[in-house]
Amino acid sequence: MKTEIYIENIKKTQYGFTHENGTAAITFDDNHLRWPNMYRPHSHHMLEVSLIGSGTGIYKIGDKSYNIHSGDIYVINNTEVHNIILKEGEEVDNLVIHFETSFLWNFYGQAEDVQFLDVFFNRHEKFSHRLDFEHPAAREIALLFQQMQETFISQPPYYKLRVKILLESILYQILCSYGFHDSDARNTKTLSNKDLYKISEIMNYINFHLDSHLTLPELAKIACISPAYFSSIFKRYNGITLFEYITKKRVDYAIQLIKTTNKSLTEIAISCGFNSSTSFNKAFGRVTGFPPSSYRKRDGSRDA
Predict the structure, then answer these.
(1) By the 8 A CB rule, do 41 and 111 touch?
(2) How is residue 123 annotated by DSSP?
(3) pLDDT at residue 303 greater than cutoff 50
(4) How far apart are alpha carbons 266 and 296 in whole angstroms?
(5) Radius of gyration of the chain from its Cα atoms, rounded to whole angstroms
(6) What are residue 16's DSSP bridge partners?
(7) Which of 35, 36, 150, 248 has the smallest number of Cβ neighbours within 10 A?
(8) Element (H, E) at 50
């Protein structure tokens, strides 16, 4: 899938592939930001790794601010509000990978695959969102970004498998080269293939029932475990609470509908499980930093 997206005059070329219901499993964005058009503070249910191609500005992540340099690599989890701030005359080009936690361990995932997420959820106290661009591993990570972009564009046989391998290679380089993860924190947690299966089963259920009234007791019952335990392991493997995940998935689905259908925003709000336009607008703004009307499919854009 390739799409050209314009959000309040910000141009983004996006590649990726989706779940069966149309929501994204992984996306690869080629962003071109020019002052005064910038992304507002936002967060999302996906994890993010970003490579700065060129430009200057400030990358604000949570309560930290980083001066942007060409070659910077940033790691952002799904709870951190972030945005790029530009001054007059500044611009930034960057490549951004967004992916769901389950993209790594999938429906029949292995416990070992969860360790790739340590840099997002089990961070050492010396962790920095910005990786040292002078580290030898930075060049290798940048090359992996380029290979992923080329793979999305050319779509060779088994390209989805290739994308996953490249993502795992990027995360492996970060884990082994920068030492930002806290291995002691990981070792105190019991990783279970059975837990992964149950979480993946519920995440799949949520994807196909976003328009329904989803409750913790109902979902825990489907998983055949107690609500308290389900809530605990869901956050352990996804980094956010169940209801944060549902809200952000609904917003993500709403974006897909806005870009690909002629439905009104009220119809889209109902289709995504929001009980009113007010709750829809508040959730959408909180997650994306933009009102729903800012997302539009521009004439000449295409899906491939």
Answers:
(1) no
(2) B
(3) no
(4) 15
(5) 19
(6) 27
(7) 36
(8) strand 47-55
